[in-house]
């Protein structure tokens, strides 16, 4: 395994040894919000149908401070495409997504990451499902390597046994591996392991980075990170969803909104989560707290916008290009502190 990028610069592990690496995620939700992808199947057909939209989001995240352009291949696997009758587009979607990520990365100093994810057909203890899932991982990893990625992320996987299949595929290809688990209502994996046990098994399997992504918001992900950090010597990742989950409703799927009677399915997830969105300051606090625990691979998952990624960057003391436009309320018409703001308007601010 090499840690150098295709261009010969520092790779993922060298960057992590020098400090935090930021990875923007959330492509599915953000592109759905923009009207270019359908919720439900959540297959990234926008890669082929609206490549300019995907490319624009890559560039927006780069502008906001992301160190990684993650190829938009989440759910671009054989099972998902079979469900919508588009298996014949599988390779084209993957290769196009990988090329879009690379083109954006070349506009800055970003790494390119391939992406595999939860298969939704894995059954723990079933050899046939394991064989099928491993084959799915192998083909996506193969395309990612062929397109020249710098490392590969396997994410949003709830079974350690399934995550290990992804890890094996990535290591067989000689690539650095980031393995992120998704934890639901109970703070254990679906195969019954604690966070510490899960992290240790993945590290022992050869993972370069282990951690959590998706499902839980900042408040309910943060308590799980300490045990993982303590259990391993490798790098640790944390990429929460951008929603206010709670101890009673720890996953964004479990969130309830009794104040809204018009929800089609009686639940906010996945397209009526707007009232639960965390603000940039909450993400900034999470990034600081996670980094203080020793988490060095940081980002935001579903629900993230570029302003959330900028908040992560600024929490780490960085000033990405987007920081030129960070809030400056000094000249606000009512709340401004500048002498140029009329005092009568400042005085009226309490009546707004």
> What is the tally of beta strands?
8
CATH superfamily: Homocysteine-binding-like domain
Mean pLDDT, all residues:
96
CATH architecture: Alpha-Beta Barrel
What can you see in these coordinates?
The protein is globular, with a radius of gyration of 20 Å. It has one domain (12-319): Homocysteine-binding-like domain (TIM Barrel). It has an eight-stranded parallel sheet. With 352 residues, it is of the alpha/beta class. The chain has 13 helices and eight strands. 40% of the residues lie in helices and 11% in strands. The longest helix is centred in the middle third of the chain and has 20 residues, at 127-146. Strand 7, helix 11 (280-292) and strand 8 (297-300) form a beta-alpha-beta unit.
Task: List the defining traits of the structure above.
globular, TIM Barrel, single chain, alpha/beta, 40% helix
Brief characterization of the structure:
With 352 residues, the chain is an alpha/beta fold. Helices cover 40% and strands 11% of the residues.
């Amino acid at each position: 395994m090499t840690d150098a990028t295709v261009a010969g610069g520092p790779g993922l592990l060298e960057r992590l040894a020098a400090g935090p690496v930021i990875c923007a995620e959330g492509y599915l939700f953000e592109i759905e919000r923009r009207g270019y992808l359908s919720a439900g199947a959540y297959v990234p057909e926008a890669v082929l149908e609206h490549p300019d939209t995907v490319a624009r989001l890559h560039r927006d995240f780069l502008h906001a401070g992301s160190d990684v352009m993650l190829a938009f291949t989440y759910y671009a696997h054989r099972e998902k495409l079979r469900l919508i009758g588009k298996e014949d587009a599988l390779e084209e979607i993957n290769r196009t997504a990988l090329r879009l990520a690379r083109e954006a990365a070349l506009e800055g100093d970003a790494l390119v990451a391939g992406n595999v994810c939860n298969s939704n057909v894995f059954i723990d203890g079933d050899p046939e499902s394991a064989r099928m899932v491993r084959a799915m991982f192998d083909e996506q990893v193969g395309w990612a390597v062929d397109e020249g990625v710098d490392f590969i992320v396997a994410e949003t996987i709830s079974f350690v046994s399934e995550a290990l299949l992804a890890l094996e595929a990535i290591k067989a290809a000689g690539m650095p591996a980031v393995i992120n688990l998704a934890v639901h209502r109970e703070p254990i994996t679906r195969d019954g392991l604690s966070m510490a046990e899960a992290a240790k098994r993945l590290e022992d399997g050869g993972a370069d980075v282990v951690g959590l992504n998706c499902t839980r918001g900042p408040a309910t992900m943060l308590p799980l990170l300490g045990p993982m950090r303590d259990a391993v010597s490798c790098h640790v990742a944390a990429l929460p969803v951008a929603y206010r989950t709670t101890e009673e409703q720890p996953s964004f799927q479990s969130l309830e909104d009794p104040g809204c009677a018009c929800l089609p399915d009686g639940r906010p997830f996945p397209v009526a989560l707007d009232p639960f969105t965390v603000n940039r300051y909450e993400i900034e606090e999470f990034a600081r707290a996670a980094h203080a625990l020793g988490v060095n691979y940081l980002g935001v998952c579903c629900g993230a916008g570029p302003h959330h990624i900028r908040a992560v960057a600024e929490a780490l003391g960085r000033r990405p290009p987007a920081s030129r436009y960070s809030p400056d309320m000094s000249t606000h018409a009512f709340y401004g502190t500048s002498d140029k703001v009329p005092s009568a308007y400042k005085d009226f601010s309490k009546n707004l």
